[in-house]
Amino acid sequence: MSKKSFDISSLMQSKVTWAVIAELLILLVCFLIRPDFFSISYQPSTGMLYGSLIDIVNRSAEITIISMGMTLVIALGGTDLSVGALVAVAGAIALKFLRWDVLAYPTPGDYTVCSYILVLAVPLIVCALMGLFNGFLVAKGGIQPIIATLILMVCGRGVAQILTDGKQFTTGYSPFRFIGQGSFLYLPMPIIITIVVVIAVALFTRKTAFGAFVESVGVNPNASKLSGIKAAGVILIVFMITGLLSGIAGLIYSSRIMSNDSNNAGLNFEMDAILAVVIGGTNMSGGKFSLAGTVVGSLIIRTIVTFVYYFGIVAEATMAFKALIIAVVIVLQSEPVRKYFAKRAALRALRKGGMKA
Amino acid sequence: MKKVLFLTLALVMVICVSAASAKDVVIAFSQIGQESDWRTANTDDLRSAIENHPGWKLVYDDGQQKQENQIKALRNFITQDVDYILFTGVVSTGWDEVLKEVNEAEIPLLLIDRLPDCADKIDYVAAFGGDFVEEGRRQVAWAGEYLKSIGKGDTDVNVVIMEGTTGASAQTGRTEGNLKALKEYPHLKLVGQQTGNFTRAEGQAVMESWLKSIDKIDVLIAQNDDMALGAIDAIKAAGKVPGKDIIIVGCDSVKAAFEAIVAGEMNCTVECTPLYGKFVVPTIEALIRGEKFDKTVVHPEEGVFDMNGGIDLGTVKSIKAADVISQRIY
Questions:
Q1: Looking at the 3D structure of chain A, how many domains does it have?
Q2: Model's pTM, two decimal places?
Q3: What is the ipTM of this complex?
């Protein structure tokens, strides 16, 4: 009995629990206003399940994927501001390879000028290298992550603009459409890609010692050095992973709209990703991290956006509404609130236990 | 190293000064930057119109979407003592001081596209800008007149308005025009209004939610073509036919919208032209001759393009998109 009461109280102390509670509360409100918010049907024309809940998971794909990397960066005690710009870079490169020269290929259609392997591989490699560049500045240059990644945040979009001559290329190449609009096992492809990425990152960090290395470097780089962990190597890998994941998100984003949008692709994604990680319970000062929490955090952000669209919150109030919900979530997760509820849970369990005894 | 730098700087300044003192009419243009295809077309058109004009010389500055760059550029133009300044500001406020400096230097100022808030406090010789309210009116009027033309003028239809970035002059103007015109077509019922931030991705996401939360949508008014193009994908994903099940009216008239109209997936796009060269050049010629203009904003002539053409909107008649698609350069 006493063991169980301890479990509840520690559960109430966990930030992840509160993130899940917050998400469920928002969904409950949706359900109370319009129960059909939860309706899911099969859409024969696309071969996919169709419903608002599917939309939430589907549209959260980019942020979830990026924030897997962001979780590791934040666990190291840093932040990566360049992820949004890398999304734009990946899209620009992919569309550049699909169309190459818009004057020579004036109409978009179901074709690619370069081999499809290049269309997918080059953006991912470039983004991984850009991530590596971030990591290099941090690990070898000793520059603070927020400053180091600011460089690519500012000039990344410029690179994307130059690649496509400041133009928006459009394509109709169906294998490329498959990434963002296709389906697999009745689910939209972005959801499938997200699941694969989350599992891959989880296995890499939890089934190897890498996750422990990240937490150790995040808590105390010097101590980890003394215990034989190569901090520089860990930092390089984490930033490279984040770059690569931003590239994947960029491909999904540009496949959804079948074009590159260097000005708007990935705009403010760094903020959303950081927010997802923080809501998910990972501390900004580094150390322990929770990938599951981050996934919930990302879902919360998207649920709010979908809520706004679905229930027709007036455009002018959208930002204020989002801010309000997020503020409530953050307060729910704050130390005093969690401690208060944990204490109450423990007390209640104790009283029950005492009565039985 | 420093010396070399100073020498080069000095040399550049000498060249600038000598360029300005040449007999050519020097026209300086402070542009926002390259924020969209529309803006690129706007820049290319004005640049080529001025550069190709005999006896005129263009000093162009790209503000890279930063106000401080544009303020710096305007001050440089004053130091170079250019003959005319063309200006479009990235934001609407905060120009009072630098534009007053332009006035004090007695350089004629021409406002292009986006007018600063302080426009009534400063002197300018001419102003050109899109009529956003009229564009918004045309969007709704086209839908209303089109429905009449297919014999559905008396049936109630549900309309959703996808707005641009909240607070942008194009959004406020077009929304005003949209809402005003809706009053003239009582059978058009407004059932949804939301911002899609002028981007394809958000247009897609907003439409996706609307298709689930609103039982029946007949007409989509999207305040730019990008959002309309995004919405088309969402409509397809919901198993509906864009252009038929839902009538789609966009704005801007970019080439991609023409392609969608020709493909039958979009119904109409109201033009918001970036091609200012043909209005600005004659105005500067007239100014050189000594003519004067009052401070009213000159609106460029703009069309409405749709699938079949011939819809009468009072001020303008729609043109069949397929007939003019080959002339679209942006």
A1: 1
A2: 0.86
A3: 0.88
